[in-house]
Amino acid sequence: MAENNNLLQALQSIVQAENSQINTAVNGIIESYSAGIACVKPIPQKRFNDGSKIDYPVIPNVPVMWPRFAGDVAGVKGPVRPGDKCLLVFCQQAVDDSDDERRFSLTDAYCIVGGFGAAKDRGAENDQMQLYFGEAYVALTEDGKLLINAPAGVEITTPETLNKGLLTTEGKLSYQAGMSGTGGATINGTVKATGDVQGSGISLIQHTHREHDGPSTGSAQ
Asked: Organism's domain of life (predicted)?
């Protein structure tokens, strides 16, 4: 019986020793990042069956994974900076297309960037989808409204913008290349123009008209 127990303990020790060499996933900190590749320092220490612990080495050349779709022509990514937290995932076989039979090696890691712990409260009351950077954000509300908050302004580069609904501006409306349109316009308040104003081809500045039965008036002063 004692021999059986010793054999079982020996087998357990072998299995545990082998398991300690398997890397699955561990949280880490970005040390450097360039062109989709990061150097990452795992945060916890590696533990062994005898209770000893050692620091993981810094893992270089780790591809950073972002959600990508439609054959990689669509996706979401953000700025990666030293000190950002991430999740390191170790593949069960070599990812370099080699015939190496290594498994769960530190050299076969991918990095998923993202903070740990509770997300920062952005006042969304859990009813918004947000894409944010600092105080700027784009949000979709539960009832279907799009909200944009851009403290530094909004810049749109497009050959044409079509708005199919009512457009309301609470601030000043200005333009540089002219304005044209069809349909009526109702304006409450003073309209100022530094150039001429024309209606149906008639100039406001050059317009003259007959004063009752007398001569025509002069141009606008």
From this structure: Bacteria
Q: Give the pair of three-digit tokens for residue 2.
A: 């004692």
CA distance 16 to 83: 33
Give all strands (DSSP E) within 77-142, no chain letters: 85-90, 109-113, 128-133, 136-141
Measure the CA–CA gap between 57 and 10, rounded to whole angstroms.
Answer: 30
Q: Collapsing DSSP states into helix, strand and coil, what is residue 8?
A: helix
Task: Tell me how many degrees the CA angle 150-152-158 measures, rounded to the nearest 5.
Answer: 75
Question: Residue 195: what residue type?
Answer: G
Q: Taking the CB of residue 98, how many other CB atoms lie within 10 A of it?
A: 9
83, pLDDT greater than 90: yes
Q: What is the pLDDT of residue 130?
A: 86
**Which segments of the chain are extended strands (E)?**
25-34, 37-42, 45-47, 53-55, 59-65, 68-69, 74-75, 85-90, 109-113, 128-133, 136-141, 146-149, 198-199, 202-203
**Rg of the chain, C-alpha, whole Å:** 34
What is the token pair recorded at 130? 């947000």
* Whole-number pLDDT of residue 220: 54
Give helix then strand counts, H and E, for the chain. Answer: 1, 14
b/e burial code for range 171-185 (CB count within 10 A of at least 16 → b): eeeeeeeeeeeeeee
pTM: 0.69
pLDDT of the residue at 181: 80
Q: Are 59 and 91 in contact (CB under 8 A)?
A: no
